[in-house]
Amino acid sequence: MPDRLSALDASFLYLEDAVTPMHVGGVAVFERPRDGFDYEQLLYLVSQRLGYLPRYRQRVLNVPGHLARPVWVDDADFDLNYHVRRSALPGPGTDEQLFDLVARLMARPMDHERPLWEAYFVEGLEHGRVALVTKTHQAMVDGIGTVELGQLILEATPQICEPYEDTWSARRAPSTSQLVLDAISETVQQPGALVENVRAVLGDAAATADKVADAVGGVVSALRTIVKPAPAGPLNTHVSGGRVFAVVRTKLEDYRKIRAEQGGTINDIVLAAITGALREWLLSRGVAMHAGETVRALVPMAVLEPDTFEFSTAGLVNNQVEAHLVELPVGEPNPTLRLQHISHGMRAHTDPNRSVAARAMLKVGGFAPATMHSLAARAAGSFSGRIFNLVITNSPGPQVPLYAGQARMTEMYPVIPLARNQALAIGVTSYHGNVYFGLNGDRKAVSDVGNLAIMVEEALEELKGAHW
């Protein structure tokens, strides 16, 4: 039988267009060791690990006439140098130059005639650093059989690349006649599949919603209970093809101190800092602000043991996550009250019926929350038009140093894709005592995303100064 894309994975391909590419990104910054870490070493490291990721050497092959969903086939012309690319920043090699490059790379759709991933080795950073920028299409990564490339090449200890022999060879792709025969055979067994696939290819929103609902179950069912549309504002607009990217670097210890003084969880404090920043950003845009003003965020979260508050995978309950729609109280001027409102709102989302196994969530992409944003928004579009203003992902990261070869990773930032009518997505992750924010914005609608990043830092300082 052919290795056919699932209905959900195929939907990512059908719904993608030139201005809303559906790949998830990551930015990792490394210190170069004394003996160096160069493009050739990265290429060697990636080639060593590809044997664990068969999907990374496969491409999508469409079935004639869209009689069935596409299939995965080995890329007989696989070229590792095409996928792992070399780039360099001009002097002085500042972080701002790096993140401008990230924005431009993330705005470009990938070539569907090749395996759907790219990695960029970026040299020329100040202080002898290098960066790795990855792009992985959400149709490709299911989190179970295939993980994001960066996850596979990072280790908890420095590694020396050992010699190896690559014995991979491409399997022959099915012929056109075989693709058609397989599709006809499946259609006989499941007559509705043909109609469903044609509707999805044509962009039928209802068909897409059904696919998403089947894949994520209770999450989308929960979203369907939301009738009231999200508040209007500058965050919801038809996005352009350009992107801007900015980051925030904060200390995990600051969140711990605020938690000890004011209660709540670390995630509540992350959301409160973002809320304070959004308030100031909206005011800077001249948005009229009343006390009850809110911004609605889709916030998928890992489910932790009751006494676990750290950004760690150790306390995950049965490997589960929940997706919450949270009203961020941007109209509240008091930072302590903002945090209290958010903590109360998050506690209201403790119904175990909303829990979704992390494996099911990961079926919708390498960074599951980012995928939830784009798919749930389109599913919701079939019945409510607009149910949330932005997505905020918070994915726990390791609290020990990680290495690519012998190069130590010092920073890591998620890059969450934008949906068609949402101009901002915020990814948050923790790593080795720090909490990192990646703010991905539309270049026209949120050109001042750098100001918003500064406002996140200021809002966190405001929370710190509230009681201690």
Explain this structure to me?
This protein is α+β, with helices and mostly antiparallel strands. The chain has 2 domains: 7-155, Chloramphenicol Acetyltransferase (2-Layer Sandwich); 216-464, 2-Layer Sandwich (Chloramphenicol Acetyltransferase), CATH 3.30.559.30. Helices cover 35% and strands 23% of the residues. It has helices at 7-15, 39-49, 80-83, 95-107, 149-153, 176-189, 192-201, 205-216, 218-224, 252-262, 266-284, 335-347, 358-362, 368-381, 449-464; strands at residues 23-31, 58-61, 71-74, 84-88, 117-123, 129-137, 154-155, 243-251, 295-304, 316-328, 356-357, 390-395, 403-404, 407-415, 424-431, 434-442. It has a 7-stranded mixed β-sheet, sandwiched between helices. A 7-stranded mixed β-sheet has the order 8-16-15-12-9-10-11, sandwiched between helices. The protein has a two-stranded antiparallel sheet with strand order 2-3. Helix 8 (205-216) crosses helix 14 and helix 11 packs across helix 12. The longest helix is centred in the middle third of the chain and has 19 residues, at 266-284. It is globular, with a radius of gyration of 22 Å. Mean pLDDT is 79; it is low at 205-227, 304-321 and 351-385. Pfam families: WS_DGAT_C, WS_DGAT_cat.
